[in-house]
Amino acid sequence: MLNLTPVERSALRAEAHALKPIVLIGEAGLTEAVMKEIDLGLDSHGLIKVRVFGDDREARIEMYETITTKLEAAPVQHIGKLLVLYRPKKEVEKARSTKTGKGMRMVTIVKPSASGTKKPSVSKVMLKGNERVTEGGTIKRAKKRQTSTKKNIPG
Asked: How many other CB atoms are found less than 10 A from the CB of residue 30?
């Protein structure tokens, strides 16, 4: 089990306040599938909330202790039916392809409002290798480069 100082725990509680529960524990209790989902959530997010449906407080405390010991996570907060858990994210090395610039890529498009008094609209879009974003914020497919017909004539 991971130990946190009171200052770290307080900062994590504040950070977890805005989070929504990503794992729900129902009537079946703490099954292997639920443990796997909690483990995946901790790997990808680091700080998660778990909601336990059930009125037995002792059972919730036992689940909380079981999760923290088996998954080597730190208990941050147990308030009502919500459990807050923390474990540092694991650095997962992603396999990079050998292609250069031919895959999908994420682009953020910011368009100012028409009147100029409202907030600009921000959207994230996946672009393919042959697409580009124009200055106006629209997506266009890149055209193939035109080749000269004169260069191909022998003579």
From this structure: 18
Amino acid at 87: R
Helices (H), 17-147: 32-45, 57-70
Cα separation, 145 vs 142, in Å, equals 9
Q: Write the CB contacts of 59 (distance below 8 Å, at least 6 apart in sequence).
A: 29
Give the bridge partners for 84, in sequence order.
Answer: 49, 77
Q: Which residue has the tokens 């368009």?
A: 111
CA distances (Å), 95 to each of 40, 89, 98, 105, 127, in order?
A: 19, 18, 10, 15, 20
What digits encode the pLDDT tens for the residues 9-35?
A: 999 999 999 999 999 999 888 999 999
- Do 53 and 26 contact (CB within 8 A), yes or no? yes
Q: How far apart are CA 86 and CA 75, in angstroms?
A: 7
Cβ(85)–Cβ(72) below 8 Å: no
Say how far apart CA 119 and CA 112 lie, in whole Å: 7
Tell me the pTM. Answer: 0.58
Please tell me the predicted confidence (pLDDT) of residue 93.
Answer: 47
